[in-house]
Structures are given as C-alpha cells and as structure tokens.
Amino acid sequence: MNFSITEENYIKNIYHLQQQSELVNTNSLAFELQTKPASVTDMLKKLQIKNLLDYEKYKGFRLTNKGNKVAINIVRRHRLWEFFLVTKLGFEWDKVHSIAEELEHVSNQELIQKLDRFLNHPQIDPHGDPIPDGNGKIPIIHQLSIADVVENKKVIVSSVANQSSAILELLNHYHINIGTEIKINQRFSFDRSIEIKVGKYAPCIISELVAKNIFVHHE
Question: What global pTM score does this model have?
C-alpha cells in the first residue's frame, strides 16, 4: 500500500515520539510537526481507518504492528540516503537530514534494495543511528553519553542524539565526528562542563548539554 508524503511524515514522527513514551498525545505530535492539533486529529482518524494506529481515549495513541513496519521502512530509507549522501557524494553530516527528508518518500523497493547493496549493507548512518535491515530488524548499539564517562577514559564517538544543524556545526568546530577518539580529562563541578581531548587537537571544554548529546562506546 502506498501512502502520501503527509501520512508518511505523521507515521515517522509518531514512531520517533514513541521512543520517548509508549503513548503519544495530539499536542506533542502537533508540536513536532509544527501544525494545529485539529489538523493532527483529522489525520489520526485517517491513519486509524487504515489500521496504522491504535487510539486509547483520554490517553493517547500508538502505531499498530502494521504502522510500525511502515515507520521502520521509512526510517530505513531515510538513513540509507543519509549514508549515501555523506559517503558517496561528499556531503557534510550537518547538511544531509533535510535532503534525506525528501528522498525517504521514494518508496520503490527495488531501488532501496539496490541502494543497500551498493552501499554494502551499512548498519549505522552518518550520525550513528542504526539502519534497519530489509526485514525491519534494527541493530542494537550499546553506548553511553560522554556525560556518564569516567575521567581519564578514552572512548570512541558512536552517535549524536540531537542532530540539528546547530549542534552538528558545533561538533565540526571541535573536530568531533562518528569514530572520533575522545579522552575525558576533567569535570568541573560548577556547571558540570567537561574538558576533553579530541584526537591530536588541543584540549577543549564542552558544556554538560553538549556532552549529554554525544554517545560513545569504549575503545
């Protein structure tokens, strides 16, 4: 079954919100999509008729198994296109999200399968997010934020939670990318900022907010 771009955007955003809370409410989805709650309600009714959504009165809604499969397929396409744009076309990681937002709606399965093979079946996208495989299975990544790493520990950056252009631009300034080695030098109790050593570069200080958005695995 084919879905409109608007329907796919709703399904994908509900999926992402469900990672934070099992049940999603109208206001949080409206905020995410920058639209009116009344417009959200109308679309939710359409998705429910198509058996993509379960609704619990006064509590919220969640994707059905069918809706979840559709969402994972959209996420798969999005992350494959991001990987393609960065590794094959040389885009910076802070420039690909909006382009992939358009490309993710190209749903030709043969194209996506060939793209996956061409890229040699990548498991993570340029931001470190897992890429679902053709069966919808999502690789499990064990990681923790830099904010939780002990001092004098060397770690490797595995993903970034907040993927806005603003924070990715900041990380570029500090030479931080997926796969970058970082050593936690010191924590400052005043504001919980952290001094880190990034590869060959001089030590620098990042805020607690930035640290909580950088996820790593041990070397």
Answer: 0.85
